[in-house]
Design a protein that fits this description.
Elements (H helix, E strand, L loop, with lengths): L1 H38 L6 E2 L5 E2 L5 E2 L8 E7 L7 H17 L4 E7 L7 H10 L7 E4 L3 H11 L4 E2 L12 E2 L2 E5 L4 E7 L3 H18 L1
Parallel strand pairs: 4-5, 5-6
Antiparallel strand pairs: 1-10, 2-3, 4-9, 7-8, 9-10
């Protein structure tokens, strides 16, 4: 029995270095994969183009105002009974996180119900969500231009005009948050309904800021 026990222990000792090499190789491969992912730039998904709207202070606003800054955009409207409150809450949380991390990120919320959402309405709405208007703009303007900007610029769907008799006030619009770089290029879409996507958005915003420095 002692002879058999010694043989088993010797066999185990012979296998141990091989197992260690396998595990070490796997760990190195994983580390290399993570490093490669970090090194790969975010894709360029399109160029936004220009538009001219009004902000919550009735001042003209165009994307050129944010040239040189990383920013996040979303579509919403103040009478929205479904997804918009969450979208705006997520934007508010992102603004708080950006400040805490000292990330120079701007935020833009564009109303898809401009007939109701005047600059003063948007200002009151933003204040309700504790928006810092120094870095968060709420925009309104001509509906046709907003629809064109959503579909052709941000590549997000927008359909319908406000109708209180219809579900969701008769308006359907994209709920993704859009990340743009310092040149106004789209670098990512993030589901506002997913917490992990919101975390990733801030990570990616930080990457874009670092790339621009």
């Amino acid at each position: 029995m002692n002879g058999q026990g010694n043989q088993v222990r010797q066999a185990q000792l012979r296998r141990t270095p091989a197992r260690a090499v396998v595990w070490l190789s796997a760990l190195l491969l994983m580390a290399s994969f993570v490093a490669c992912r970090r090194a790969v730039p975010l894709p360029v998904l399109g160029k936004l183009g220009t538009f001219k709207l009004q902000d919550q202070s009735a001042q003209p606003f165009s994307p050129e105002k944010l040239r040189g800054r990383v920013w996040v955009a979303a579509f919403m409207f103040t009478r929205c009974p479904s997804i918009c409150p969450r979208i705006t809450r997520e934007m508010q949380q992102l603004q708080v996180i950006a400040k805490a991390k000292k990330l120079e990120v701007s935020f833009v919320s564009i109303s898809v119900d401009p007939e109701n959402d005047t600059p003063s309405v948007l200002r009151s709405y933003g204040a309700k969500y504790n928006a810092d208007f120094a870095t968060w703009s709420f925009l309104t303007g001509d509906y046709a231009l907003i629809k064109q900007t959503a579909e052709q610029g941000f590549k997000l769907a927008l359909d319908g005009r406000a109708d209180a008799k219809q579900a969701d006030f008769g308006i359907s619009h994209g709920s993704h948050l859009v990340l743009l770089d310092v040149e106004g290029r789209i670098r990512g879409y993030y589901r506002s309904s997913e917490d992990e996507a919101m975390k990733q958005l801030m990570v990616d915003a930080g990457r874009l800021i670092a790339e621009a420095e």
